[in-house]
């Protein structure tokens, strides 16, 4: 079995998910795992080697698991290459091969291997601008993120720049109160850029470590969205020159292929630098994490695997693949 790539061995020392967090991850991916492996078991039933029919079935399984067509083709091509090189691959080895190739794909985009909530030191507040359509769990993700960063010892300030909906401002206020962090807000209909400016000014005065800015989640007009986000960026840079340091797109994992479309729209409207994929615990479409990360070449930074505050986890490619193939 010399052809097996030991891709996990060098990274194991950096993993530090607690047992409780591992259990949460396992539980959150349970629907995706059971759906995927029940299909895979049927696909290889009666087969002893990986042949064209098995690969065709595997391709169908990956696509139906919302891995995405392009990423699925990459995985199939990699397995075909291994079949050609090794002449004979048994179906009993398919799980390990899949695990290795999927981890390899994730490693190309997700270079870091950590489970800690941390940000680079910049000498100024580290600014995260959060984007995403309404309903994906954007504001909830911001609240949970604020809680995790505060627990890690950071001083956090929230900015309610989604001024299009009063509910968004109110919801973020509830999270700020719950977590115990300051929030900067204005009235509904206010200029989002003005809110962002005030937030950063306040954060600088408070010597804050991290600023998380919520933005409106409208996609009805990509040009308007592009202009609005560009303006928010320009105004923030009057206070913190390099802001935002991270533009995080929040996607609802349960929407499958619709999440791909949202990623396409937002990456066209602004420079997205990281992803947070939510609601993985309520869906069998966990494969979307693999596909979106690969297709858009943007690292997945956080995943939501439950409703509790602690159920937002730093995405760790090793832990994710270990859990998925456990």
Automatic annotation (TrEMBL):
Transmembrane residue ranges: none
Catalysed reactions, semicolon-separated: GTP + H2O = GDP + phosphate + H(+)
Subcellular localization(s) per the UniProt record: Cell membrane; Cytoplasm
EC number: 3.6.5.4
Parts forming coiled coils: none
Domain SRP54-type proteins GTP-binding as annotated: residue spans: 299-312
Topology within the bilayer: Peripheral membrane protein
Keyword Zinc set for record: no
Keyword set includes Nucleotide-binding: yes
Principal location listed in the UniProt entry: membrane
SMART domains on file: AAA, SRP54, SRP54_N
Described purpose of this protein according to its UniProt entry: Involved in targeting and insertion of nascent membrane proteins into the cytoplasmic membrane. Acts as a receptor for the complex formed by the signal recognition particle (SRP) and the ribosome-nascent chain (RNC).
Subunit structure and binding partners: Part of the signal recognition particle protein translocation system, which is composed of SRP and FtsY.
Family label: Belongs to the GTP-binding SRP family. FtsY subfamily.
Protein name (database record): Signal recognition particle receptor FtsY
């Amino acid at each position: 079995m010399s052809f097996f790539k030991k891709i996990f061995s060098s990274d194991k020392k950096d993993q530090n998910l607690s047992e409780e967090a591992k259990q949460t991850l396992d539980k959150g991916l349970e629907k995706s795992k059971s759906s995927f492996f029940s299909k895979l078991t049927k696909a290889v039933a009666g087969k002893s080697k990986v042949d064209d029919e098995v690969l065709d079935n595997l391709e169908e399984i990956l696509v139906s698991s919302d891995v995405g067509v392009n990423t699925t083709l990459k995985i199939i091509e990699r397995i075909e290459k291994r079949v050609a090189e090794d002449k004979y691959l048994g179906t009993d080895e398919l799980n390990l091969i899949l695990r290795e190739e999927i981890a390899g794909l994730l490693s190309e985009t997700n270079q870091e291997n950590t489970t800690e909530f941390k940000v680079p030191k910049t000498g100024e507040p580290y600014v995260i601008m959060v984007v995403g359509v309404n309903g994906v769990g954007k504001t909830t993700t911001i609240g949970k993120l604020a809680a995790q960063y505060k627990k890690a010892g950071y001083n956090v300030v929230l900015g309610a720049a989604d001024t299009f909906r009063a509910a968004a401002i109110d919801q973020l206020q509830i999270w700020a109160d719950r977590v115990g962090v300051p929030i900067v807000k204005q009235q509904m209909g206010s200029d989002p850029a003005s809110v962002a400016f005030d937030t950063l000014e306040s954060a600088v005065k408070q010597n804050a470590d991290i600023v998380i800015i919520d933005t409106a989640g409208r996609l009805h007009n990509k040009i308007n969205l592009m202009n609005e986000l560009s303006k928010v960026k320009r105004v923030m840079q009057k206070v913190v020159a390099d802001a935002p340091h991270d533009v995080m797109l929040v996607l609802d994992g349960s929407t499958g292929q619709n999440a791909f479309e949202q990623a396409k729209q937002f990456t066209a409207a602004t420079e997205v630098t990281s992803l947070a994929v939510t609601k993985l615990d309520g869906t069998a479409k966990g494969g979307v994490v693999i596909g979106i990360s690969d297709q858009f070449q943007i690292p997945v930074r956080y995943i939501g695997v439950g409703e509790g505050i602690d159920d937002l986890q730093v995405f760790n490619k090793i832990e994710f693949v270990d859990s998925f193939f456990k």
